[in-house]
């Protein structure tokens, strides 16, 4: 899939002419047998369930799914009889026309593929439904200013799609960045990690990083790191005879007294009391 920026660049070079706009509610028995698509079209599913097959590949048809069909595709479409599909559709022609280095470039649809093809998941469905509704209303009217308004709405529809894809990409990149720092903490909890260094690793500001980390993980970054250290300290207290100072140092604390305060704050008991309660006795069965 093209990046949002690449998609915007490609769409900016196209002149798009609307052929048909509509809103359909399928009957429970609706089923279109495999057919070769003749026109470019975009379908937004708003209700119900179904299944679309594009060039032999199956896709779920459900609210929040947007399908972009291109000429030559072999498509089969069917609805769930208990939850019939409802959708908006837009059929269009296009040509590529743009100026480059003071020269106009022209390419017809056969020479340049439309940059959207197949199935996409969209999050901002309400805004897309609104734009399709307005296009559907304007399609029933005539006049030069109405035609201009349709063009503006069509561009707004594609811009909304690009913004939706961009928001999804940022969210995905952010989640990956949060998981990267989470994994780093698991492997380096004994090192002197700081909130600033973790935020820098994620490529985010400290406040934004802290907020997102808590949203995705359930703990603040420092609380998460603290629990990692305390959990490892519990293991050492139970399974070894190491001195408290050495255990504190091995989990990232240079001050054993500070470590003891943190440990008690998290567990409710001091490290020594925890060790007495949980350490295995040689006389006990394992």
UniProtKB/TrEMBL annotation:
Q: Please name the Pfam families in this protein's record.
A: AraC_binding, HTH_18
Q: Which UniProt keywords apply?
A: DNA-binding, Transcription, Transcription regulation
Q: Does the keyword Cell membrane apply?
A: no
Work out whether the entry's keyword set contains Nucleotide-binding.
no
Q: Which residues form the HTH araC/xylS-type domain?
A: 179-277
- UniProt-recorded name of the protein: HTH-type transcriptional activator Btr
Natural source organism: Paenibacillus konkukensis
Q: Which gene encodes it?
A: btr_10
């Amino acid at each position: 899939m093209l990046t949002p920026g690449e998609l915007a660049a490609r769409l900016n070079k196209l002149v798009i002419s609307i052929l048909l706009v509509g809103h359909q509610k399928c009957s429970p028995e609706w089923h279109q047998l495999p057919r070769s698509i003749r026109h470019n079209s975009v379908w937004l599913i708003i209700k119900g369930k179904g299944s679309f097959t594009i060039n032999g590949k199956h896709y779920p048809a459900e609210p929040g799914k947007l399908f972009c069909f291109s000429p030559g595709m072999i498509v089969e479409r069917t609805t769930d009889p208990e939850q019939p599909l409802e959708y908006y559709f837009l059929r269009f022609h296009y040509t590529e026309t743009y100026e480059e280095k003071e020269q106009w470039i022209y390419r017809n649809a056969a020479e340049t593929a439309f940059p959207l093809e197949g199935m996409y998941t969209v999050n901002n469905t309400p805004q897309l439904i609104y734009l399709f509704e307005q296009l559907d209303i304007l399609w029933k009217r005539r006049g030069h200013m109405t035609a201009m308004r349709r063009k503006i709405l069509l561009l707004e529809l594609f811009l909304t799609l690009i913004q939706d894809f961009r928001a999804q990409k940022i969210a995905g990149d952010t989640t990956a960045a949060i998981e990267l720092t989470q994994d780093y903490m698991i492997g380096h909890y004994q090192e002197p990690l700081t909130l600033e260094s973790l935020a820098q690793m994620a490529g985010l500001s400290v406040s934004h990083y802290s907020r997102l980390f808590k949203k995705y993980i359930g703990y603040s970054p420092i609380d998460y790191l603290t629990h990692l250290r305390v959990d490892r300290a519990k293991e050492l207290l139970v399974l070894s005879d190491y001195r408290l100072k050495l255990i504190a140092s091995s989990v990232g604390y240079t001050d054993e007294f500070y470590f003891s305060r943190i440990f008690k704050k998290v567990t409710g008991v001091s490290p020594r009391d925890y060790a007495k309660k949980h350490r295995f006795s040689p006389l006990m069965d394992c």
